[in-house]
Amino acid sequence: MINRKIPRGLRDLLPNEVLIQREIEKKAAKLFSGYGYEEVITPTFEFLEVVETGAGRNIREELFLFTDREGGILSLRPEMTVAIARLAATHLQDAVYPQRFYYIANVFRHVQPHLAQYREFWQMGIELLGAGSAVADAEVISIAVKVLQNIGLDNFKISLNQIGIFNSLLDDSGMSFEQRDLIRRLVENKDLVELARVLDTLAIDDLLKETIAKLPILHGGLEVLKRMPYVEKNRHASEAVAELLKVYEALQPCGVTKHIVVDMGVLRGLDYYTGIVFEGYSPDLGYGLLGGGRYDNLMGLFGLPRPATGFALGMDRLALLLENQTAPLRYIIGGADWSAMIAKADELRSQGKIVEMDVEGSSKEELERKLQGRENCSLIFV
Amino acid sequence: MQAEYLTIALSKGTLLKPTVKMFNNVDLPTKGLDEDSRSMVFTYDDPPIKYIMCRPTDVPIYVEQGAADLGIVGKDVIMEQARDVFEMVDLKYGYCRFVVAVPAELGNIGIKDLNYKRVATKFPMVAEGFFRSHGLQVEVIKLHGNIELAPLMGLADIIVDIVSTGRTLKENNLVELLRIMDSTTRLICNRVSYRTKYEQIQPLIETMQNYTTGGNGDGNKAV
Question: What number is the ipTM of this complex?
C-alpha cells in the first residue's frame, strides 16, 4: 500500500486556494512597498538559542525541533519577528535607522490543529526597526487597517492596548513570577470566574484588585481608560495610558479610527512586547486575523539595541474570509493542425491571455464534452 | 440595517430549567422555550436573540467555533474539553463536584496508594491532569456512562466522576476519597463575538453577574 498520508496539521493547497493566497500577497506587498517597506527572506530554520532568546521563555512545546549533524539544536521558525531582529543585528549594524522590512513566510508551530490553525501556516508582516515614537506605532497600525481594507474586508476591528498598563499594575502587586503569569493568562482568556477567585486569595490593595479584575471587560472607545481607578496611583501605568492616547491621536489623521477599539484584555502571548499591542478581528471568523505591537528590547538581545514595532497577519485565516475568487478567463485551443494551434496560442498569449493547448488530439465534440462544467473557459478550435 | 442576532447555545437536560428561570430574571425572552419541542432553534426579535438546544458536551465547540456567541454549560464540561472560549460568569446553579471514588472495602487508603491504578471515567482529561499534578501515573479507561459499574465488575480499581449528592456512589458501595474540584454552570463566550458584539454582550454579562451575586453590583467577587 502506497503511503499517501501527510503529517498532522499540514495541508496541500490546490490551485483555487493558492490563487486566493497569491492575491492577498500581491495586494499586501503593494501596500507595504508603498510605505517604503522592503522584502527580506530569512532561513526556514534557526538555532534554538535564537528562537528562545526572542521568546524570552520556554516555548519548546510549541516548536518543531531537530538536530544538525554537529549536534546543534535547530527549530523551524515559529514566527518572523525574532528572525528579522537577528537579521538586522547581524547585517545592519551600521545602517541608518529607521529601517522598514516586510516578509511573506511559512511558520511552524506544534499546536492542536483545527480550522484556521495549522502546524505550518503562512504569515505576512512588517517590522519598523529603530523608531520609538507614537507616530511609528500609528504608521504600523494604520497599515494593518489598510491591508485588511485593500484585501476587501470592511467589517473588522483592531483592538488596541498598551502592555505597560498591565505590567505596571502587576509590578505594584508584588506577585511572584508564577502568579503574574497566571493572572496574565486569565486576563487574556477572559476567564472572569477564575480571575476573581485567584485575586480573592491575594493580599493586595483592594483598588488594585478591582482594577485588575476589570481589565478583561474594558473594551470600547477611549472612555474605558478612565475606568481604571488604580492607574492614577501608578506613575508607569499613567505614562502607558498617556502613550496609548498619543498613538490614538496620531491615528486620527490616518482616517482609520472607525476600526480602532481600546481593549485592556489584549496582552499578546509573546513575551517580547513592551508597549503598544494590538489584534485584528472580523465577526465572520472566530479567530484573530492579525497581531502585533512594540518590542523595544528584542533587538538589544541580539546586540543592537533599537526600538521597534510591527505586525503579522495570518494569511490562512484571511483566505477563509475571501473564498470564491473567480478564476481568470482561459482559452482552450484544439484542432488538427498543430502549427496553426501554436500560432493562435502565441498570438493570444502575447496579448496577456491565459491559453491552454489540447495535447491529446481531441475532436471538437470531445473537447466540448470535457469543458462542460468548467468555469470561465472559452474553446477555440482551429 | 437589520439587528444582529445574539446566538446562545443552551445545555439540554438538568441545566435547562434553572437556565430558563435565570433568563426570566434577567429579562431575556423565554416564551415557548422547551427542549421537548421539535425545534432546536428558538428565535426572538425583541431583543434579537436565538437559542440553540445542544447536548451539554457540544456547547463549548459551538461557542469556540463561533456558531454560537454565548453558551450556558457546566464547568465540568469546560474543564474536560479545554476549548478556547472566554468564561465570563459563574451562574452558581447546577452544582456538582469532581471526585475520586474508591470501593468502600478499600477503606483507609491515601492518594499515594493510587499510583498505577486503573481509573474509569467520563472525564479522561480531568482525571489524567489531576493525577499527573500529584506526580502519579494512572491508566485511564474512558467510559461513556454508568462509571460506578466499572469497579464492581473489576474493569477498574477506582473512578473519577461528578457527583452532586453522592447518593449514586453510596448505592454502588463506593466512597468519595478526594475532591478534585467544584463545578457550577458558567456563561461562556466566543473570543471574537465578545469584541464584535460587545454592545450586546457586555450589558448581558453585567446583568447576569448582578443576578448571581444577589444584585450587590460586584459580580466579579468570588464566593
Answer: 0.71
